[in-house]
Design goal:
2 helices, mainly alpha
């Protein structure tokens, strides 16, 4: 689970980096789009893992 949060924070950092690059007019659309896709994928993976953890906890009790 900690691994997924590490991936989420790294992809968030990449997204912020690309966002700042676009603000100072050194925008690369490919890397910006890639960072958005990575951020969304990491958010979905963490959300799914949290949901599965919640389901397993509900089954156990």
């Amino acid at each position: 689970m900690k691994f997924m949060y590490i991936i989420l924070s790294l992809s968030m950092g990449l997204f912020v980096n690309e966002l700042v690059n676009c603000m100072i007019e050194e925008c690369n659309a490919f890397y910006f789009g890639l960072s958005i896709i990575m951020l969304l994928g990491a958010m979905l993976a963490v959300g799914k893992a949290e949901y599965e953890k919640k389901l397993l906890n509900n089954q156990g009790s």
